[in-house]
Write a structure and sequence with these properties.
alpha+beta; 119 residues
Amino acid sequence: MAGEAQSDCLFCKIISGDVPATIVRETDSTVAFRDINPQAPTHVLVIPKVHYPDAASLAAAEPQVLADVLREAGEVAGAEEIDGTGYRVVFNTGAGAGQTVFHAHAHVLGGRGMQWPPG
């Protein structure tokens, strides 16, 4: 059921503590941890503790939790000291956009110059 932990989801396993991760922040509704394949000097994922396959489905079902994810992305940027130089928050939706774990999540990237357009 939407919103409930999925036994085959890597991020649900990180939330439950069954899979280790380098946690940098945690709130009642989110967990933030370092990406295992960083694309920038700072690359932290912020995930909701509820399971939805992507940001759009999370926004439709639980907009406050999506707001929590975005607020926490800003807190991560501050804690990582990239808020003053600039950072990017990315939601990939679907395999064609590069999403590999189908649990809504935001990438917080910074610590280097970002080009536009991306990818």
